[in-house]
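Duplicate of #3305? Posting structure anyway:
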């Protein structure tokens, strides 16, 4: 089984920074495991990698293989009340009627709050919102959007952002300015349906390269099933994926949980090999091959 299912003849156009990659999709399809393994694989190849955890579950530290006492000690950016107030002019939970800086200067967020993970990956945990809505002007939302905009200005890095289940992060526009989106699904109808909606929103947000990643593929039947689900989608609204990739079902992934260390021990695994191929493809598109 190869890592790639189909590649489009030409990438979509757009102005997003292709060294910034967002990982999205339905809950439970393996987004966090994929983000962690990609981050460490790219870092081992000499890339400078910043992993951003924008998932409310905040499990990326564990998946990256940080020691439990370090992972549990991380205070997410949205919970740093003093920092939120410093940058936005309002404390979390301060309610309506406050004066709020809509474009906070949060360029120091990575330096002040990121932590070191294995293989020299830097990790920034964004945290969750108490008022999760597309129009929310709460201080936490404003700060997180400002921090992501500031990260875009940092040269020479690959940024991987793991997002929460579903499509709400696109409503908050945290992925605005990203140049690549990995839309992850399993071979189920529900997974592919969410993937199609997510891909359309990513394209609407101006992300030029939207890749479909089908995880836990057990064989040709799963491939045919996914193709059938994709073909059922309305032709007028079906997104044009820049590429499509297969990640095979691999018992070593389950055995390695919660961390990806067991997939990086030098033993070749089908899943690890497919993710390595995907990492190469993303790095080439980002122009970060060394």
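Output from current build:
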């Amino acid at each position: 089984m190869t890592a790639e299912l189909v590649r489009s003849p030409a990438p979509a156009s757009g102005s997003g920074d292709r060294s910034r990659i967002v990982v999205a999709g339905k809950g439970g399809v393996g987004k966090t495991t994929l983000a962690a393994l990609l981050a460490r694989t790219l870092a081992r190849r000499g890339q400078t990698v910043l992993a951003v955890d924008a998932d409310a579950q905040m499990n990326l530290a564990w998946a990256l293989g940080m020691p439990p006492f370090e992972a549990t000690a991380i205070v997410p950016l949205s919970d740093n009340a003093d920092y939120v107030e410093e940058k936005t002019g309002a404390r979390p939970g301060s309610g309506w009627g406050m004066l709020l800086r809509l474009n906070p200067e949060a360029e120091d967020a990575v330096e002040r709050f990121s932590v070191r993970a294995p293989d020299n990956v830097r990790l920034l945990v964004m945290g969750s919102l108490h008022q999760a809505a597309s129009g929310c002007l709460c201080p936490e939302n404003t700060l997180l959007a400002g921090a992501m905009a500031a990260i875009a200005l940092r040269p020479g890095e690959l940024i991987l952002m793991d997002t929460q289940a579903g499509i709400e992060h696109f409503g908050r526009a945290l992925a605005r300015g990203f140049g690549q989106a990995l839309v992850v699904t399993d071979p189920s109808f529900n997974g592919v349906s969410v993937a199609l909606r997510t891909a359309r929103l990513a394209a609407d947000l101006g992300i030029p390269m939207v890749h479909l990643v089908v995880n836990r593929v057990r064989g040709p039947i799963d491939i045919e099933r996914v193709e059938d689900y994709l073909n059922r989608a309305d032709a007028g609204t079906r997104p044009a994926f820049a590429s499509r990739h297969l990640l095979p079902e691999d018992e070593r992934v389950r055995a390695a949980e919660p961390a990806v260390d067991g997939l990086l021990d030098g033993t070749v695994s089908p899943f690890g090999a497919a993710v390595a191929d995907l990492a190469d493809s993303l790095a080439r598109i980002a122009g970060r091959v060394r």
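Confirmed duplicate; merging threads. Residues 1-14, 130-135 have pLDDT under 50 and may be disordered. Strands lie at 4-7, 17-25, 49-54, 115-116, 122-125, 158-163, 178-185, 209-217, 243-248.
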